[in-house]
UniProtKB/TrEMBL annotation, chain A:
Example of a GO MF term: NAD binding
Function: NDH-1 shuttles electrons from NADH, via FMN and iron-sulfur (Fe-S) centers, to quinones in the respiratory chain. The immediate electron acceptor for the enzyme in this species is believed to be ubiquinone. Couples the redox reaction to proton translocation (for every two electrons transferred, four hydrogen ions are translocated across the cytoplasmic membrane), and thus conserves the redox energy in a proton gradient.
Organism: Halalkalibaculum roseum
Compartment annotation: Cell membrane
Membrane topology, as annotated: Peripheral membrane protein
Keywords recorded for this protein, A-Z: Cell membrane, Membrane, NAD, Oxidoreductase, Quinone, Translocase, Transport, Ubiquinone
Name this polypeptide is given: NADH-quinone oxidoreductase subunit D
Automatic annotation (TrEMBL), chain B:
Role noted for this protein: NDH-1 shuttles electrons from NADH, via FMN and iron-sulfur (Fe-S) centers, to quinones in the respiratory chain. The immediate electron acceptor for the enzyme in this species is believed to be ubiquinone. Couples the redox reaction to proton translocation (for every two electrons transferred, four hydrogen ions are translocated across the cytoplasmic membrane), and thus conserves the redox energy in a proton gradient. This subunit may bind ubiquinone.
Membrane-traversing stretches: 12-36, 91-111, 117-138, 159-180, 200-219, 256-274, 286-306, 318-340
NCBIfam families the record matches: PRK06076.1-2
InterPro entries xref list: NADH_UbQ_OxRdtase_su1/FPO, NADH_UbQ_OxRdtase_su1_CS
Listed GO biological process terms: aerobic respiration
Listed Pfam families: NADHdh
The entry's keywords: Cell membrane, Membrane, NAD, Oxidoreductase, Quinone, Translocase, Transmembrane, Transmembrane helix, Ubiquinone
Protein name: NADH-quinone oxidoreductase subunit H
Protein source organism: Halalkalibaculum roseum
EC number: 7.1.1.-
Gene (name only): nuoH
Length: 380, 344
């Protein structure tokens, strides 16, 4: 009897509030139903779903493998190339196609450039969530340079539709290599600048260390991937562990969080993994630029007619946000019979209720920012 | 100053009105300038241009255009808000800021009221700021606003303690609560032969007092890294979420007025107020006004610089800094200053 009265009183102390949209990528599409006791979060429930891309249904009803590619762009619109690449590799595996060397190298360069651009956006907006406005703009200045390189190659700024089944839509421009090299040399000092503003800033460390700790076990149980998983100390990168394309030809490390300033798996760890991954991506791009053959037709292997044999395929690739899987079933027609995309943002967001318990409202902002979701990938 | 005005202008009432309106004009012009300056500082730090179009040279008329825009906006009062208090809050806030200017000695010839309890009055009247913020937050009938208001109240009440302790340490050295007297005793050029005779150079503990004072005034005028009342990523706009148009504009105006007020207080207490840094060179009432505003603006600039560099603290960390570090240090520092004064 007495406990009942107490719980009733405890209920009176809590308050349910709607939080968000707060992170730039959650505008209009993610709302958090937060139960708070004062400023302490008792329960946080993400309410997703106002985007309704219907990607899977649309892909199945289009009836053409090639026409699906622009739709994959829209799953994760800040790392479109990586989404295209995953889908195209899956279809090529169904078709058992051989891809020219030059195309493989170019895909890797484009995908790694896109990874840097995506991480820059993630880091910048994470800082913005914590009240640091200037790093956000610094990141965007750098991101703009990458977008310009990609725009010159593909003709689009955000949704490229550049990688096609068997090759690329068109050859890269002549000055692509020099421009990319210029970007790499100008970008390295900018990372130091960013570290000065955020990584080693004591206020930033206070706000992110020991916040939203995701233990290794929980991360594995939920199926987290990408920087979210690596931040918790698990060295798991599909580029290395289940290699695809030509990633086995490059030397690079997998940065993992080790709790340098707090507990392993906190927001700072997830942040630093992204920063270090950008440096690794630069290494990959440099190696790829050196090894890439200068001559070759990028449309050489593009099939006239895409009609794979009956069968199914599951291909997973590493996008900036984690493991992106495409499961495609073919019934020997010109379009896929079934497409299922396993997007990292959805899985990573599902961990939010588990790691936000007991945090403060301001920590919740940091946690959502550190997950780095894109809502296109959450509500396909 | 009042006597001079009375001599020029026939009616003593008009003379008095002009005398009273001077700080108001100053604060308004300053706010226009400071908002523009904030944008330009931000633009330079962030590698961009900032306002460039409105008014020609570097967009100098941008704030005026903003003001006109705000004046035209619809004045929305939430249905379930407490109408009277909701309307009253911004005006009370601004009135408190403005009233505090009356004891600030702008130059050797101009002070609103040279009262003997100047500092005491200033600290008392600025506590109205807390009241009006809480009033506005509560009256808007919005959970987020109330959260923001409570945060603001907690923050401002807490940081008042280290502010007052560091002000007290200055007053122990100065021996007067009258800000004019405090400024006058900093005239001259004696410390170490070349440094001006400002209080900050007079003993090492006053330097510590100034650091504490500066951190506390950043928090008092809620600027980054202590801008929790506004914190746009967590509370959207904190206590002022429900305010629109010019009512919101007055909140902004008061924030900038508050920044200036506290910076000017800092310049009186530590940097010799209207005294010239070069002794007798460039001294006098008009130059005094110039030096005084310049010193205040330098502190304002440092606050802006910090705003565009640092992230924001969390509310419990903010309290930890205040109660865990600033208050104990300021108390110890106060005792040390008192001892120094006894010995030397």
């Amino acid at each position: 009897m007495k406990t009942e009265v107490l719980t009733q009183e405890a209920d009176k102390r809590t308050m349910t509030i709607n939080m968000g949209p707060q992170h730039p990528s959650t505008h209009g599409v993610l709302r958090l139903e937060v139960t708070v006791d004062g400023e302490v979060v008792k329960k946080a429930k993400p309410d997703i779903g106002y985007l309704h891309r219907c990607f899977e249904k649309y892909a199945e009803s289009l009836g053409d493998y090639a026409k699906v590619v622009p739709y994959t762009d829209r799953i994760d619109y800040v790392s479109a190339i990586n989404q295209e690449m995953g889908y195209v590799i899956a279809v090529e595996k169904l078709l058992e196609l051989e891809i020219p060397e030059r195309v493989e190298y170019m895909r890797v360069i484009l995908a790694e450039l896109q990874r840097i651009a995506s991480h820059l956006l993630g880091i910048g907006t994470f800082g913005l969530d914590l009240g640091a406005f200037t790093p956000f703009l610094y990141c965007f200045i750098e991101r703009e340079k990458i977008l310009r390189i990609l725009e010159k190659a593909s003709g689009a700024r955000l949704l490229y539709n550049y990688i096609c089944i068997g090759g690329l839509m068109r050859d890269i421009p002549d000055d692509f290599k020099t421009e990319t090299r210029e970007f790499i040399s100008s970008f390295r000092p900018k990372i130091d600048e960013l570290n000065e503003l955020l990584t080693t800033n004591s206020i930033f460390i206070d706000r992110t260390a020991n916040i939203g700790v995701l233990p290794e076990e929980v991360a594995l149980n939920y199926g987290a991937s990408g920087p979210m998983l690596r931040g918790s100390g698990v060295s798991w990168d599909i580029r290395k562990n289940d290699t695809y394309s030509i990633y086995d030809r490059f030397e690079f490390d997998i940065p993992v969080g080790s709790g340098e300033v707090g507990t392993t798996g906190d927001c700072w760890d997830r942040y630093i993994v992204r920063v270090r991954e950008m440096i690794e991506s630069l290494k990959i791009i440099e190696q790829a630029l050196d090894q890439m053959p200068d001559e070759g037709d990028v449309q050489e292997a593009v099939p006239r007619r895409v009609r794979p044999k009956e069968g199914e395929v599951y291909v997973r690739t590493e996008t900036p946000r984690g493991e992106l899987g495409y499961y495609i079933v073919s019934d020997n027609s010109s379009g896929p019979y079934r497409v299922k995309a396993r997007t990292p943002s959805f899985v990573n967001l599902s961990i939010l209720p588990a790691i936000s318990k007991g945090a403060l409202v301001s920590d919740l902002v940091a946690i959502v920012g550190s997950i780095d979701i894109v809502l296109g990938g959450v509500d396909r | 100053m009042l006597n001079t005005l009375e001599n020029i202008i026939p009616s003593p009432v008009i003379a008095l009105l002009i005398f009273v309106a001077l700080p108001l004009v100053l604060v308004s012009i300053y706010a226009l300038f400071a908002i523009w300056m904030e944008r330009k500082v931000a633009a330079h730090i962030q590698d961009r241009l900032g306002p460039m179009r409105v008014g020609g040279w570097h967009g100098w008329a941008q704030t005026i255009a903003d003001m006109l825009k705000l004046l035209q906006k619809e004045d929305i009062i939430p249905t379930n808000a407490s109408r009277f208090l909701f309307k009253l809050a911004p005006f009370l806030l601004f009135a408190a800021s403005y009233a505090a200017f009356s004891v600030i000695p702008f130059s050797s010839a101009y002070i609103g009221s040279s009262v003997d309890i100047g500092v005491f009055y200033l600290l008392a009247i600025t506590s109205l700021l807390t009241l009006s913020v809480l009033m506005g937050a509560w009256a808007s009938n919005n959970k987020w606003s109330l959260l923001g208001g409570m945060r603001t109240a907690a923050q401002m009440v807490s940081y008042e303690v280290p502010t007052i302790m560091s002000v007290l340490s200055v007053l122990v050295v100065a021996g007067s609560l009258n800000l004019m007297t405090v400024t006058e005793m900093q005239t001259g050029n004696t410390t170490l032969g070349f440094l001006p005779d400002w209080l900050i150079f007079q003993n090492p503990f006053l330097l510590i007092a100034f650091v504490i004072f500066f951190i506390s005034i950043v928090a008092e005028s809620h600027r980054v890294p202590f801008d929790l009342p506004e914190s746009e990523s967590e509370l959207v706009a904190g206590f002022q979420t429900e305010y629109s148009g010019m009512r919101w504009g007055i909140f902004m105006l008061a924030e900038y007025a508050d920044m200036l007020l506290l910076s000017l207080l800092g310049s009186v207490l530590f940097f010799g107020g209207w005294n010239s840094p070069f002794g007798e060179f460039m001294a006098g009432p008009i130059w005094g006004f110039f030096w005084f505003i310049l010193k205040g603006m330098v502190l304002v600039f440092v606050m802006m610089w910090m705003r565009w560099t640092l992230p924001r603290y969390r509310v419990d960390q903010l309290m930890q800094i205040c109660w865990g570090f600033l208050i104990p240090i300021s108390f110890v520092n106060f005792v040390l200053i008192a001892l120094w004064e006894m010995i030397f």
